[in-house]
Amino acid sequence: MSPITTHILDTARGRPAAGVAVVLDRKSAEGSFAPVGQGLTDGDGRLRTLLEPGSLIPGVYRLTFDTGGYFAAIGTAGFYPEASVVFTVASAEEHYHVPLLLNPFGYSTYRGS
Q1: CB-based contacts of 31: which residues, under 8 Å, 6+ apart?
Q2: Three-state SS at 107
Q3: Model confidence over 23-77: pLDDT tens digits?
Q4: Residues forming beta bridges with residue 108, ordered by sequence position
Q5: Closest by alpha carbon to 45, among 7, 83, 15, 82?
Q6: All domains of the chain, ordered by start, with CATH?
Q7: How far apart are CA 93 and CA 30, in angstroms?
Q8: Pairing between β-strand 4-10 and β-strand 46-47 as defined by DSSP bridges
């Protein structure tokens, strides 16, 4: 399993958000972000394949979720075309699970397990 995973729940519909495009970026020493992983959430709203096991490097990462594409696909108008979550990886030995709770007009996140 990837050392960074995510799970999206559509709280307005009360179910997982399947088929959401997600990009994982890592911040360089110069301060710019570069992609290191990407994928689509599965039928359970999970993405477990962003990075190869053992490839995690401590630093600042960003997950960007294509919420606009998701809402368009289910025929719902949304306010945010994308949601970005920036977080710090302190240890390459830990697992980082970053869930997203989503609805058409808001989102929240937390560090899961």
Answers
A1: none
A2: strand
A3: 999 999 999 999 999 999 999 999 999 999 999 999 999 999 999 999 999 999 9
A4: 101
A5: 7
A6: 4-109 (2.60.40.180)
A7: 25
A8: antiparallel
Task: For residue 30, give the amino acid letter.
Answer: E
Task: Supply the DSSP symbol for 45.
Answer: S
Pick from 106, 104, 96: nearest CA to 7: 96
**Contact (Cβ atoms closer than 8 angstroms) between residue 77 and residue 59:** no
Which residue's entry shows tokens 């594409």?
69
Dihedral sign (CA 99, 101, 107, 113): negative
Q: Dihedral angle at the C-alpha atoms of 83, 88, 94, 100, nearest 10 degrees?
A: -20
For the entire predicted model, the pTM comes to 0.96
